[in-house]
Structure formats: structure tokens, C-alpha cells
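PROTOCOL LOG
Step 1. Enter all chains and additional molecules of the complex.
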Amino acid sequence: MAEHITFSRRGAFAGLALPGRFGQAEGPAGLTVAVRTTVAIAQVVARPGRTDEVSSAVAAAMGLTLPAPLRVSAAGPVVAAWTGPGRWLVMQDEAGSGPYPAGSFVGRVAEACRGAASVTDQTDAQGVLRLSGPRTRDVLAKGLALDLHPRAFRAGMAASTLCGMVEVTLWQTDDTPTYDVAVMRGYAGSFWHWLGESAAEYGLVVAPQDDARAGAG
Amino acid sequence: MRIPCPHCGERGHEEFLYLGDAGVRRPDGMAEAKAGEPASRPWMDYVYLRPNPAGVHRELWQHVHGCRAWLVVTRDTRTHAISGAEDARTVALARDGAPA
Amino acid sequence: MTTPQRPLPASHRLSAGGLIDRSARVAFRFDGIAYEGHPGDTLASALVANGVRLVGRSFKYHRPRGLLAAGPEEPNGLVELRDGARREPNTRATAVELFDGLTATSQNRWPSLRLDLLGINQIAAPLLGAGFYYKTFMWPAAFWEKLYEPLIRRAAGLGRAPIGPDPDRYETATAHCDVLVVGSGPAGLMAALTAGRTGARVILAEDDFVLGGRLLADDLEIEGRPARDWAGAMQAKLEAMPEVRILRRTTVFGVFDHGSYGAVERVADHVGQPGPHQPRQRAWQIVAKRSVLCAGALERPIVFGDNDRPNVMLAGAARSYVNRFAARPGDRAVVATTGEDGGRTALALQRAGINVIAIADARAEVSRSLQVIADHAGTRLLAGSVPLRAHGHGCVQAVDLGRPDGSGRQTFDCDLVVMSNGWVPTVHLTSHLGGKPAWDAMAGAFLPGTLPPGMAVAGAAAGRLSLDECLTSGAFAGLEAATAAGFDGTAVEVPRATREDQDRVALVPTPKPVGGGKAFIDFQNDVTSADIAIAHREAFRSVEHLKRYTTLGMATDQGKTSNLNGLALMAALSGKTPGEAGTTTFRPPYTPVAIGALAGVHTGKAFKPTRLTPAHGWAREQGAVFVEVGPWLRAGWFPKAGEDWLAACNREVAAVRAGVGICDVSTLGKIDVQGPDAALFLDRIYANTVSTLPVGKVRYGLMLREDGFVFDDGTVARLGPEHFLVTTTTANAAAVLGHMEHALQWTWPTLDVTVVSATEQWAQFAVAGPRSRQLVARLADPGQDVSNEALPFMGAMPLSLLGGVPGRLFRISFSGELAYELGVPSSWGDALARALMGAGRDLGVVAYGLEAMNVMRVEKGHPAGGELNGQTTAADLGMGRLVSPKKDCVGRVMATRPALVDPQRPALVGFRAVDAKDTVTAGAHFIDVDAPATTANDLGHVTSVAYSQGEGRWIGLGLMKDGPRRHGQRVRAWDGVRGRDVLVELCPPCFVDPAGDRMRG
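Step 2. Run joint prediction.
Step 3. Record the structure below.
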């Protein structure tokens, strides 16, 4: 029998995102990073020609309007980001809902889309960071070729692109501005290195994790 | 280079992967060979023969680090001027006479 | 040689005026001697202020050189800046903002600047003319490496590159704007203002550390006040506009496709060391809807005998030194001019207390305005006169003036000659996308021709030289650019400015300087008028050939001060106009850009992103040695104390074959395929049939390219009637996904299938060895059956483990042993590794790496990287029968081409070393025992090798002509590169359990 060891879930940024202040120590930090460890992620890919059907099915079952291209939408705790034609990441933060967050939510999305879209669990394939602070745009400009000027990109918009040479999906959650960035898990270390280097000039605060599974970073 | 993805808007070329000429058409894989020539004959053009125009070229790119859509990009090989970018599947359905 | 001393007071600093801060002192050293300057100085201006006139030796002839210019076009004042790992060779002293503690060293002199023994090159000068390298070092070829090259490097090198790694940080960044304005002279400031007022997003990039361009150097008035004050007020206005961004110390070095511009910002080059966390430089990609090029113009030198003597200087540069930097380049000056600029220069010099001895004006008629200035300054104006020859060694001591034909020659003692031969618009950026500058006879210069899309040119860069024209053209160009970018704006008020008369003629160099001496055209590359004449005589008429043959306008200089003189001479020799002769292509970068700036933070191990598996940290704790596989780091082997890689690998293999081992295979590509047409689609993608696979089963899948060769292989698991999970090799994961998407979106767009990468979602471990089932069973949650009956060989099932983690279990074997692959969501990958090792301790479980995995697959004859090399067919690999002829699939038809089914093709074969002491290497060629090792006798090559403990010797796989028919025979494995020649015995490509009983057990 297996020994009595407690095994723990390790998020993409476990061991990387240690709370504290880094880089420039003077003045207000230019960037604050919080790791979102408890986001369940379902990748929805509409089967060819059935995008509208998927949208109605998700609306009916979950009360969520799937977003138009380059947009995010939300309904209660569920957020959906467009990632390509007929493709969305449908997400729910399941903080405090048990040891394994993804199963039931992704299953619910799959059930809603049955026959019209393929749904795959990508909860563990991405690490999600929340970026905020006065120099957030300046930091992102060092790795992201996207125009984040308020005239070009606002709260409620999303993009799948490269950041620090790594594939990401990014969406803006408010106009302060705050961005969520979902990073391919295998590249989390490289992305973190890029982020730390790029934010060092302005000072970087890594927020402590508020979730009970703080070690799961 | 900046490529105007029909789904995502203009993005830098680093997000895209180039394949090549969008004019070639895959032969029917199960067609009988014509009498007197090997079955591979119509495939040689499809696999190997490519025009190399000094001018307008329709070519396949994939927005691989973006929306993952394959695109048909119309580019002038002399100036790199891009006059259009279409969703490849939509083009392919029209090509095959199938409803979108 | 360093001489400790207190710096002397700057001998040539004016007591008032200039844009320097006299309240602060900046200490610096040049060639070991301590000097002082002030904030606002460049290294060049501080040297001028300290009376330093000799700054370097020339590239080829080692002639003493002084400053020719005051800006980025400087060809002579190239120094090594800083020390040690921060040493930066070939730095233009005119572009270095002075900072406290700066050290600079002159280049290209040995042993010292004043005494340069290689100056003897001058005596050998006739040997060093145009085409010198091509002619001299042709023969004998063997002399090149040992004699010629070291000699040339010592004699003609420029600065030394630093040896140590660069200690500074660099960054890259992207900026977007509606209007990019390049240059902040009068045109640029107006363009930024008018564009900014429309609300457009504007970036104003200025190379210098102060905005204003020539307004800083010249004594001009705008709106009734000094132009430099006006520039300051403009800067304040622009800074107050929220959508205008000013990038100072930023050079726009290149124009790229579709509105992309490359720029480098020298964030911390003006301090000794960057502050903590501060980058030294930042390379910008600027994406602009429109751009306005206001890069100004460069002054054209006069080509005359020994015009390279130190303190023969461009007139605009001299005005810049006195007006902007309050530094007096000399005490007794001769002004040589071809137009009205000479008057402005004489006035500026005289105001700075420089005694202007004479003004030579090339125009035949006496200019009334110049005469007024000459009278006022008490100096002689010689109309119709040109400089004929400079005299002096360390510094110019006199100059001969006279008529262009050499008559009327008079010598004037002086320590400064300033020359003004008109202005050459800085059109470099207009031609980066292939646009050809156009000759304008009226302007006597090449003006911008076809412009890059979205670019407009204003001010002196467009040939509009006078201040009022600069302001007007800049104002309109800025407004037009903003309008074109979608913004509204109307009225433009152009400020009133000093009127400047631009009347002038142009002096074209003669093949042979009338006054004698060497007449330099390209100072940086030591190209003289005689060199151009030689090239012409030897029929190098095309400007591009002229450039390569003479080195005119090459290297970092890019012809900034030399191009027009060189081309004009060549055109004159050919009896053409410069427009007919054409100009060479200007290429990016406009000025040198450090590679470090372009790399940004992506250096060393961060050069490319690295991909790590979920259990990477666990493997590191186990002492894994990692190897790179594409972007991934994979554990190669797990050495215990005292083990080398082979010992570790042997131990790992032995443990798996006798007990159980685990190996992280998370890097294999995983693609989730769903939809009603999924089975049909996979039949087309794979050469073998997939559609007959039952749910809950796994099958090997072989993928061809459309040309019929093998592309990739992996496994296909059917999770449901319309749901498959396929795996790819690590190396091809991205390519296979793209290939499938191409097939679905382009080739067969009506197939009802989706494909999604699941690679990152799943951590997967191979659990292999006779005790693997026991180990897997221990991790399974209660009530789950992993027996041979419940999960036979090539079966797949969901498995709940570790107390509710939803996993997937596949009974597949790469090692030939009873084996599984166990997948869990990636967040549990680390836990899975620890759980397997913990639960299997009493079973003797080991962690094994890529090397052990490779040994075991070679022993089983499974093809991998060496065999899937893009040149093999299914039949070559012994899998010809897998290819189903009954269905369409990628590559099916082309695989039937005669050359691909030729029985003579090299095919997969196994071999073992005959002598157990011999090592065989991959890449060795198979040669018959009695045949010489020649290409004609080449039978094929070794693709993979492994040390097999079962065989007690090295074994391997190879591709060999007739290989499958020669089992039991002996051939040589000949490796000419490593000097090995080993006898091997051919055998079937399987060394362990050929019947496959173990993996089925």
C-alpha cells in the first residue's frame, strides 16, 4: 500500500511566485502580481460551423453569453475569454471548493456543449497571474507586442498572443488597469523570469496567496 | 512584418508560421491512376511544384501563437505589401463548393 | 600609460554661453590623462574644450586624425569607451554624453597616439590603394592564415572587443503610436506639435540628449527669441500633452515592413554604470501608423590635399562646438565655403574669440553678405577660392588657398580649417525598404525618392534647409500624418524665424588633388579621391561595385560624410550626373546597435524559453542531469555518487528489466481529437488504420508526410466512439498539431472534427518493468482493477489514484517490459512522481532517464530520432505492411513512387559489436569487410547505438542496403570523423524478448 504521505497539488507557478518585494525597493511598486491558483479552465472548441449553437447551449445551461472575438464575458463566477474562432476558455475560480477544483466545473461545461463543441480540461495546462499596478502596461510592453493603450484595449477585451516569447491568453479585467494572463504551464519558469526582469526597474510585489492552499502557487 | 489576421487584427509576424503557396490543390487520394502513368504523377505538382512569382502571391500562414486559424494571405513578394488575409477554412469551403 | 595628476583647467572653454552647466564639473580620462568637462558636454566637446585635437589614427594608413564632426556622422573620433567587460570599441566621441569617471582610449595606434610606428603605412600607401586586399593577398593561398591575416589585423584593425561577458542588462520593448516623428530639430518639433494637437498618439524620437537639433548649434531666432529657448518651450508644450511621448537618447536605426521601426534608447549610457535594476539600453520596436522623418542633413566635406589633418573640421560642427558647447576648437581659423554658410560660420567663430584669418568662397562672384561679415570680422574674403592643401602633422598648421586650378596659391597659418560644402539630406531611413533616393540637381543632393509606406519627410531631410522651410514643412507633415492616421486638425501656425540665404555651389572632387597630398573622401575607411579614380580606371563603374572595391561608405559609417563626394567623383569620371550614376543602398542600422540591446533579457539560459515538465523539481532533487530536447529539459540520467552517465544508465536499465522504473514522458505531444468524423480523420492522418480500434484500446500510429516519407509516430487511444487521444514524439508535437489543423481547415474542411493540444494538461510517467503492475496497483484508489484481464496489453482506462485524482492509464511499452503510462493532471505530476517512488521503494523502483529509455528502445528495435530522420519510408523501417492501401491517407500515393519502394533502399537492421571491447558510434558507415572506405562502397549508416548489458557489448540500429537480408554477416562500422573502424555482426533489429511475451504478461 502507498505510504501515508499527503500529496499536494502544485500549480504552474509553485516555487516561483514567492511573496515579497523584488527589484527596485524604493517607492510604490510598479507591478503587483497575484497568482490565481484555483481557476478551473475548460477549453471549448466549437465543432465546425456550430459556433452559434454552442453559444445558445452555454447561455441556456450556464447563463453565460460566450464573448465575441477579442472579448471576455462573465456571468457570476464564470468568465469566458475568446481565444480564436469558435474557441473559448471558460473559467471559474473555485477558491475554497475542495481539493480538486476542476472536475465538476469542466464536466458541467462539457455537458452544456455536448455534441456542439469539444470540451477539454485545461485547468492544469495554464497558470493564471493577475497583474496590476501603475506600471503594468510598461512592464507588459517589454514582452507583449500588443497595443494596450486604452484606445486600443480596454476592460472586457482578450487576446491570445506571445508575451516574453511565451504563448499567453490575456484579458483586461478593469481599467486601473488589471490584467489576467494565462500562461502555458511548461513555460511558467521562463515567463516568470521575463516578468521579474521586466518589472525590476519599477519594483515588483508578489502578493501572498489568499487561498488555503497557499503552497500550491 | 505585420499580418492582418481576419480574426485578431494586425499582429507581428512572430505569431505566425509560414507554409507556402495556397494555390496547390490536393489530388483525390483514391483516384485510379491514369493509363500509362504512375499514380504519383498528379501528386508531383501538388507536393513539389511551386510558382515563385515576383508579385502577388496567395499563401498559407497559420496564426499559430494566436487564434490558431490557418489564413490565406495575399502578399506582394516584391514589396511585402499585404492586400488581404482570409480565413483559410472559409476559402476552402468555397473552393470545395461546400456550405460554410 | 596613466599619469596621476589634477586636471588642468579647460584651456579652450568659453567663459560664457552654450548649453553646459558650468556649476558642475565632470571628471574624465582620455588616453590616461585626466580632464574636466561639464554636464551638457559630449566626450568630443569636452576634448575640444581641453584643447585635445588628436583623437585617433586612421584605419588603413594610421594617419593622425581629429574630430571632423560634432554628431553621429563622426568618422574619425572613434574611441574605446570604458574599461574591462564594459569596454565598447569604435564609439563615436561625438555621440558620447560625458559622465563622471568616463574613461576613453584612442584606437588604432601602437604604441601610442602621438608616436605611431605603423604610421609607416603612409609610406607604403601606394600599396594600400583601392582593391588592395584583392590584389595583394591572393597568392599563395597558404600565406593567408599565417601571415597576411595577422599582419592586416595588427595594422588595420579598429578597437578591441571586450573579453568578459557584458555585466549590464538590456531590454526590448514595443511601442505603438499614430505618428512617429524621427528627429527633434525645428521640423521635428513642429511635426510633433501639430500631430499631437490633433489628439493623435505621437512618439518623438531624438538621437541626442537635448531636443532641438541644429537650433542648439546655430545662432537663430524664432518668434523673436533665441531658437534654443524656443526649442525648450516646445519641449515643455509637448511634455504637457498626454499622448505625446518623447524618447531622448533614442536612435531610430531602421525601417521595417508594415509600419515597424527599430530604435535603440540609451537608457543609461550617460552614466558610468546603470542604476540598480536599470537597463543599459532598450531596443524598441515602434509600430506606427504614420511617420515623419525629420532627420536633418549632414554637411559635405571639401575634398582637398591632406584634408584629414586634425582640426580640419566641418563648419556646422565648429558652430556646434562654439555655440552649443562653448568650446573653442582653435585660435586662428580659415573658413572654406561654397556658399552663405561660410558667413554664418565666420561670425560664430569670431564671436567665440577665434581669429578668422580668411574666408575662401568657391563662388566666383563676391557675395555681398559675406563681404559684410568679412569686413565686420576684419578678415579677408577670397572669392573664387578653394582650399588646395593642408599642412601640419599633429594638427593643421597652415592651409593653402587658391583657385580651383591651383593658381593664386597662398599659404595661411592657422590651427583650424572649417569647411562648408553644402548639406546632404539624411535620407538613410527612406531607403531601408528599397526606396532609391532621387538626385536633385537644384539641391545638389540626393533627396528622398520612393518612401516607405506611411512615411513623410520634412525639413532638411527633404532638402528644405532654411529654418523657415523646416518649421513650415514640419508643421504640415505632422498634421498630414495625424490626419492620415484618422485624426482631425486644421489651422497650423508656423512661427516666424530668421531668414537664411542658402545660396551656394557644390564642389566636386577631382581625381587628383590640385594642391598635392592625399585627398580623403571617406575618412573612416581611408578612401581617397585617387582610390575612386583607380576603381574607375579598372572599370568598377557601378556604384555598388565601387563601394565594395574601394570600401567607400562601408561599415559603421555607411557613407554619412563620404557618399556624395565619392559618387559625384565617380559620376564626373564617367561623364554622368550623380543621378545617372545612382547611389548605393543604405541599410539598417543607421548607426551601430549593440547585439545585447536586440537580445534584451533573452540571453544565456533565457535565450529561448525553456519548457519544464510538472515533475521537473522532483527530478532535480533526484540529481537528474538534464538534456535539451527541443524547448524541453528532460532528465537524461540520475547519477548516484561516483557514477558517470554510462554507469547510471546501466544501473537504471538493469533495475527496469529486473524490477520497475519510472520515467517522465510528459513531453510527448498529446492531442485530443473529437467529433463524429474523428476516426475517418485519423485514418487519413495515419498510414495505418485507426477506425477499427475499439474503445478502451491503444494502437501504434505511423504518420507519413505528403511526400511519402515517415513524419512521426506515436500512439492512438480511443477514449470513446468519437473521442481519441493521440501522442506524438516530443520533437514533433507542435508540427503534428499544426499539420492536423491544416488538414481540417484547408485540405478537408468539411470533416466534423476538433483537435486540441492536451500536452500541458497531463503529466505522464512510464512505469516499466516486471513489477510495474504491482506498483500501479498500489497507487490506484480502492475498487479499481488493473489486472491483466481488466487492462490487457494495449488497453486504456481511466484510473482514479492518490485519493481521487482523475488519471488515465495506458498499457503500452517502449521498453519491451510489462509497462504502463500513467497520466494525471499536471498539477499532480510532482505528487505522482513522489508517490511512485515512495510506494515502490520495496520493489526497488528507480527513476530512469532518456538514456536508459533509449537503450531499452534500441534493444527492442523501436525507431526514434535517428531513424525518423525525414528520409525514411515505412518500408525502410520494416513497417511497410502497416500502410493501409485501402484508404486515402497523407503520403499514401507518393510512398508508392519507384524510388521509395526500391528494394535497394537502405533498411532497418540491428547489429552488435563483434569485439565486446569496441565502441560503435552513431553516424558510422557500413562498409564491407574487405572493401575500402569510399563513397562508392558506402552501404548505409548507424542511426542509434546503445550499450546492452544483456549482450555485454555495444549494439545498435542502422539503415543499410540489403541489411534485412544480411543478418548474421559481418561488416565494418567505419567512422572517419572519430577514427573508428569496428567489426559488427548484423542481426534482426530486436535484442530482447522478440516474441513480446514480457510486455503482454
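Step 4. Note key features.
Chain A has four helices and twelve strands.
The longest strand of chain A covers residues 166-174.
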